[in-house]
Amino acid sequence: MATLEDLGVSAFINILSAFVFLLLFAVLRIQPINDRVYFPKLYLAHKRTHDHSSRSAVRRFVNLNICTYITFLSWVPGALRVTEPELIAHAGLDSAVYLRIYTLGLKMFLPIAALALLVLVPVNVSGGTLLNLKKEVVFSDIDKLSISNVNPGSNRFFVHLLMAYVFTFWVCFMLYKEYSNVAFMRLHFLASQKRCADQFTVIVRNIPRISSHSTSETVDEFFRRNHPDHYLGQQPVYNANRYAKLVKKRDRLQNWLDYYQLKFERHPEKRPTRRTGCLGFCGREVDQIDYYQARISELERKMASERQKVLNDPKAIMPVSFVTFDSRWGAAVCAQTQQSKNPTQWLTDWAPEPRDVYWQNLAIPFFSLSIRRFLISVAVFALVFFYMIPITFVQSLANLEGLEKVAPFLKPVIEVKVVKSFLQGFVPGLALKIFLYILPTVLLIMSKVEGYISLSSLERRTASKYYYFMLVNVFLGSIIAGTAFEQLYTFLHKPATQIPMTIGVAIPMKATFFMTYIMVDGWAGIANEILRVKPLVIYHLKNMFIVKTERDRERAMDPGSIGLGENLPTLQLYFLLGLVYAVVTPILLPFIIIFFAFAFLVYRHQIINVYNQEYESAAAFWPQVHSRIIASLLISHLTLFGLMSTKEAAFSTPLLIFLPLLTIWFHKYCKSRFEPAFRKYPLEEAMEKDNMEHASEPNLNLKSFLANAYLHPIFHLFEEAAKEEETVEVRIDKAQKQQHHHRQEEETHVRSSSQYHEESHLRSTHEMHYHHEESQYSRSTQYHEGIHVRSDMDSPSPPHFVYHYDIQP
Amino acid sequence: MATLEDLGVSAFINILSAFVFLLLFAVLRIQPINDRVYFPKLYLAHKRTHDHSSRSAVRRFVNLNICTYITFLSWVPGALRVTEPELIAHAGLDSAVYLRIYTLGLKMFLPIAALALLVLVPVNVSGGTLLNLKKEVVFSDIDKLSISNVNPGSNRFFVHLLMAYVFTFWVCFMLYKEYSNVAFMRLHFLASQKRCADQFTVIVRNIPRISSHSTSETVDEFFRRNHPDHYLGQQPVYNANRYAKLVKKRDRLQNWLDYYQLKFERHPEKRPTRRTGCLGFCGREVDQIDYYQARISELERKMASERQKVLNDPKAIMPVSFVTFDSRWGAAVCAQTQQSKNPTQWLTDWAPEPRDVYWQNLAIPFFSLSIRRFLISVAVFALVFFYMIPITFVQSLANLEGLEKVAPFLKPVIEVKVVKSFLQGFVPGLALKIFLYILPTVLLIMSKVEGYISLSSLERRTASKYYYFMLVNVFLGSIIAGTAFEQLYTFLHKPATQIPMTIGVAIPMKATFFMTYIMVDGWAGIANEILRVKPLVIYHLKNMFIVKTERDRERAMDPGSIGLGENLPTLQLYFLLGLVYAVVTPILLPFIIIFFAFAFLVYRHQIINVYNQEYESAAAFWPQVHSRIIASLLISHLTLFGLMSTKEAAFSTPLLIFLPLLTIWFHKYCKSRFEPAFRKYPLEEAMEKDNMEHASEPNLNLKSFLANAYLHPIFHLFEEAAKEEETVEVRIDKAQKQQHHHRQEEETHVRSSSQYHEESHLRSTHEMHYHHEESQYSRSTQYHEGIHVRSDMDSPSPPHFVYHYDIQP
């Protein structure tokens, strides 16, 4: 156990490293060459563009203005200057509410820390148990400030009990205020939002197949019958699985083509060649540029025919559809009610934003869904409690004797001393590190298997899985030594009343550990977050080797996102630590407060300048944050309960029992009071917005506004490419098209023309017959939307859009 | 522990007593004098009427037809002859589905019993452990047939494991089939139901108070704005608290008046008199009949003014309202969606049937509701686990030494030997008996405090509370000796893995106890149910002392109802016993099968001939039945798990772990698959029925149909009385009324006239302006409805309708 001095040293090191990171950040961020690493959001929002002209060659890369180096915290006022409404407009409500979690932490823990340090620390210090026992047990100095210093059976525990009540009430009060604030912000945000396609759209899943009808006809008939007054149209979902694969392949070939063309430009004397045989070693020699051009054009022919197939084949339409209504009221009604007599068919729900849709999961049928959820919940349980088993297995393999047994021929290599020490010292740790690094991805994949249909819900589900992992393996794992599996065994074989005692006794002893944890994981981690080492390195590497055009440079930017999947559980862990230690070892609280304050500044800066908003869920994650903090409160009560019962404070049992009961009631009340605001959309609101819209824009053509809003992004992508590359040809083609409308032999036309045509065909087939001329203008804004969506799609890292469906039987 | 012979004796006694009950029933039911005890349902359904004329005086009371005495089971074919559709038409879907629980039990346990007796019993008998150990422990013969007889560590346990899987799959299969059947029956029933007010009505709670508006205006405005196409009207709910009290008081006085008038008729020579002073001993002497007549007329003046106040005072209107729509579709939409931005206001839900409404709970505000639910759940927990504490306290008071200490002056009385033995032997048991007798009532009151607004939901909630009590105190309490509180203490202080072991080991040893329990509580209890001893006695007592007219005789009938609150948990306990013992001691299964078969016959007979249907919830209790049987399955797995682990069958752990997991998954699947059919109303269905109705009755006046359907029964009562007593005067008054409509001074008119007028005023004020003349005819059917409702209200026993509100601030 660490003494105060040890802790001081640790704090010094961590503060120093954080300081160094900040200093580095201060220097790097003002170099123009790093502009796209530290301000990608501004580029995405078109608030900053690269200007080539004005500056000299050196100044384009290095900042020579000495003045700007002086104030290394100059980013802080900039981060604070932006008001909350501006922030919402700039980065969305999700980001703004995410930052409120930090301010909630500050508002919660500042008064608690003040009270605890003023009241509990003096009580603990004057308790003086440990001073008497000094000879027997070696206690740290920290323990003098904690509850461990109070004599068993002392009346001083009444003070702790009182404080536990005061803290719980304060936390509940703050939680209530914040929940009501966030709910209000959400409703206000939704009310003031401009017209969006998702307000009018409902996603319908599990559409029954009727043999004589196509899916589109079935949907149309069903909604015309059951929502006669408000049904507008529908957007079928295509199975673009194979097509997406082809697109991916073409992109890869295009990359190679670009590479060789660049090579040729640099060395015009020699055209790059290759052999066609295996691995390029044998076979006929061909010109690389010609070869790839030929393959690409061949692939594009294939793509065209595949696209035709997707659009014309009724079997390519999935049993899922985006149904649009002529009013928000109609959509709200449809989303909240049960449609069919068979409760597993015609499942309706709010459509996520178009950019938020996770296309692959759309077609999972109901039965499969229920099996998937069940299997994944078993898998998560196994992962949380038994994850050490495969890792230990890998580690034992890396164990030298084991390795020698498995592969005796390696013996001479292993016996070399350097190799041996490397293997022994590094590999076992590496296995665990790699596991922890890929864990969020694994959890995300698990959530995907569960079948959620929007990125936002996927992230929320990932966050909740990660929370369980952290709770068991970081919190309980640190308190009770041993793996989670051993803990599970202990818990199953100990009486229920013993468990809180075991935890309660260990809690004060682990305070210094958690302080160090907060400094390493919290302080230094946040400083690392602002420096963005990984994106910085990757960007410059890409810039050196890949980037050719301004457009490539834009693609090389990796703005990233807030990463709710990882950050929410981390934050929730800090809340847990703060609440558990508030009564037990209040000296831990300042560490948490510094974390919250520092992280608030950093994340505010990053949200303004760096992160790209992938979707807007209007703070849909708040109920989760709220209930996790409530769970933390309950855990803190339980540990206090256990601790008190070992301290022979018999009076505490009946007094403490009310705390968890009241907390549970508070939670239930909040849930019923606020949660509907996050799950449902009130008709009052919908009607109000509908009426306002009718009054202000009586001639609004909603059909054209909604047409294609929920088209699969792969088609948008195509459409956009066609527009971008050969706009002139399209214009010419438009005239032709009006002559021979709907003629299939147009496939033989130039590529872009036929593409464009198919797009328009696609539009006209889906019960959304509107005038081509009239809607041309309104559609142009949509193309812009399409581009926007696509810029997300194309960013290098996200694995979300693999452009294919799982087709379930 | 009982041997086979003991069990045989017990079985003989119970079968004999059941036989005696049946014989008594066979004799009593064919006596005309008992007709209204054994066939009240037929009287209520007007399928049987009392005929005075044809028979002689003796034959009117006693059946002298010898032939009818011979076949003492003659009621059985009659009970079986009725088909299910007839049963639904006669007694409602609830009753029919309730009977399906018994057939489900038979379908489930007959094959299980056959398989278990054929396979498991031979395996157990040839196991032969106990024979070797005979000298050490005394085992009963039953144990030779049970799993206890198998050697620890034997491979024979694989058979038991296999059977556990087979039984679980069979039970799940039957449950699935039954759930789907019941869901289909429910949907079919709702679809084929004739037009009811509740199909068009939504109950709105927590209407916000707007100072400048009355509640009615607020409701009207809100729904006109947010449901403009379908909103029809509303029925405000009045605070008839004081008025209901006055009605009750008048009824009491009227009873006295009737009594004295009867007395005077019998002895016309002497008018009954009394003194006005204290307890009738001093003061002026008055004529009793005059006295009560004067008091009644005074009270009726008060009632009239109170009624005026209720109808005219805007504060008497509660913040709750029944809102009607012009189509089922509109009502379905409103019931299933969120209305207001504030999720605690404008809470909408399906309106229960008018006869199902529990009026007192209508006005409980949201916040109070959440506190009530929380407090009651704490109270139920306390009741289940600590109910022995107050009883032990009462018992210790009844303890002689204790009593002598508390009241020393009683010493000489207590010391008398007879009194002493009475006190010692009888009183302690009496306290427990009284508690168990009033327990369902206590639980019902608790459910009422929770704030449920329909009788059906109150009964369901009572059932679930009672189930917890039975599970802990009957099932666990019998297995682990000691009070529930002691069990709780044991469970908290034992490791989690030890608990199933403790239960598992005790399970086979308690088999004989539960067999006896099934015989006493099940067999004899059912025989007692058919004999209806209590209603028989009470009816004849009433008939002797109170009944004067045919109408009184109708009131004296106590048909009772199925009593889901008590019967569902009892049935669920039998399912639990059957499933737990299926693998362990299969010889118990025949006892349960006999119970199910016998109870099925008896309840079928009772439902056809006796019970009065209080409401129709369309089998809304089925999800509860289903999930309780699933819970029983899980408990059976857990006990088997514990039992196996003590039997050193190490292989069983990994094999058994899948059973509960699969069961949980099955439950989740069924829940999502079928439960929406019980909670929501599909729009498809609503639209279909609306369209059919429009086609068949294009000129239907829905407003007049819905007017006053949800008027507080106290007003219906009044209206009806007015009509019945002074129809002529009303007719005259009608002409007057048309002349000076809406004049307040009509209060001075004769009572009935003013009453009638107020009724019409009541109608015309609530946004349901319709032609008086036109609707007169349609209303007449409603009066009939009103009478029907009232006949429930007036039946002597039910405590549900106390005719007052709790007004919450």
Quickly list its features.
two-stranded antiparallel sheet; 4-stranded antiparallel beta sheet; transmembrane (chains A, B); 3 domains; CSC1-like protein (chains A, B); membrane (chains A, B); Csc1-like (chains A, B); mainly alpha; disordered C terminus; 809 residues; 36 helices; homodimer; transport (chains A, B); 6 strands
Brief characterization of the structure:
The structure is a homodimer of 809-residue chains. By secondary structure, chain A is mainly alpha-helical. In chain A, 67% of the residues lie in helices and 4% in strands.
Percent in strands of chain A: under 5%
Judged by helices, strands and strand pairing, the structural class of chain A is: mainly alpha
Which residues of chain A sit in consecutive blocks of at least 5 with pLDDT less than 50?
133-139, 725-809
* Most residues in contact: chain pair: A-B, 51 and 51 residues
Q: Tell me the total number of β-strands of chain A.
A: 6
Give the overall shape of chain A. Answer: globular
Number of domains of chain A: 3
C-alpha termini separation of chain A: 59 Å
- Output the radius of gyration of chain A: 31 Å
Main pleated sheet of chain A: 4 strands, antiparallel
The largest beta-sheet of chain A arranges its strands as: 2-5-1-6
The total count of helices of chain A amounts to: 36
Oligomer: homodimer
Indicate the mean pLDDT of chain A.
Answer: 76
Assign a percent range to the helix content of chain A. 55-70%
Subcellular location (chains A, B): Membrane
Protein name (chains A, B): CSC1-like protein
InterPro entries (chains A, B): Csc1-like, CSC1/OSCA1-like_7TM, CSC1/OSCA1-like_cyt, CSC1/OSCA1-like_N
Biased composition (Basic and acidic residues) (chains A, B): 743-776
